[in-house]
Amino acid sequence: MKGAIRTVLGDRFAIEGVAYMHEHLILDSPLIADRFPHIHLHDVVAAVAEVARCRVAGATLVLEAMPMSAGRDVVRLAEVARRAEVDIVAATGLHHDRYYGPRHWTNFVSIDELADLFVADLVDGIDAFDYTGPIVRRTSHRAGVVKVATSGSSLDDRDRRNLQAVGQASVRTGAPVLTHCEEGKGGLEQVARLTELGVPASAIVLSHVDKSDDPGYLVALAESGAVLEFDQSLREWEAGVNSRTVRSTLLLLEHGFASSIVLGTDGARRTLWHELGGAPGLAWLASHLPSVLRAAGVGDDDLDLLLRGNAERVLRWRTVHASGSG
Ligand SMILES: [Zn+2]
């Protein structure tokens, strides 16, 4: 259905509470377990409890940002959505090369083949095995965004190829695009390439850009028409109004870009999770960040846009004229 927000348990038309716009609840691949154990998230019980804390603090929607075949598990995500009673938006697309490695099959297929798989995830349902084996068993759980990662301030061959496949999938379906900006960089190059491919800038969410503290860059990103996703506040929760997220937010508000910001935790690190013995816990975004932003001078209307309204607008699929899976 067009104009809706696609979650793993069905389409929605509104977000009632706080939207967590770049999250990690399940990250479970052999590669992650081996090379990145600090972000290895495999426990549904812990995820349900952590997300339930977010819900108590006001969250109603969580965007899970791991795309296909790199540790995503849509069956477990649907279980978390049901048990914690939050809407979860899943991603398709591809992440950074470090989550696949040079021998991964996604490096050896065509752009069209990739785009077809993204579209199938968005329109038909995500494979229960997440494209890790020869059997594909599509679930009823569909992706709501298509993700692409680039590797820095300039695009390499892999970046360009994946941007093209992701751009195609977004244009064919009307699904919004979520990007990974490595160290916050590369956002302008991503927007330039995706808009060339026909994706409206207003349907692009640029993740991690508050890792950059270049004011000119952040303002230029907002001027491009894309939405900026700020997610450094949990890492700097003790910094209060001096955190990069808060400083970047104030900068954009000064320039009139209240409609260009969404917030997330990028909380993949186990040390950020309350349920795994870390701090401050993912709920902090909904329970504490609003009062930090208020203390920094952000008004209630802007706060509603940052926490909810902008996410609701950008997650709605656009109307497309051609058939989605053609
Ligand atoms: Zn992430």
From TrEMBL:
One of its GO terms (molecular function) is hydrolase activity. Zn(2+) 2 binds at K147, H180, H208. The keyword Transmembrane does not apply. Pfam families: PTE. Binds 2 divalent metal cations per subunit. Zn(2+) 1 binds at H22, H24, K147, D266. InterPro entries: Metal_Hydrolase, Phosphotriesterase. The keyword Metal-binding applies. It comes from the Bacteria. Its cofactor is a divalent metal cation. PROSITE patterns: PHOSPHOTRIESTERASE_2 (PS51347). Keywords: Hydrolase, Metal-binding. The modification N6-carboxylysine is found at K147. Belongs to the metallo-dependent hydrolases superfamily. Phosphotriesterase family. PANTHER family: PHOSPHOTRIESTERASE-RELATED, PHOSPHOTRIESTERASE-RELATED PROTEIN. This is Phosphotriesterase-related protein. It comes from Microcella pacifica.
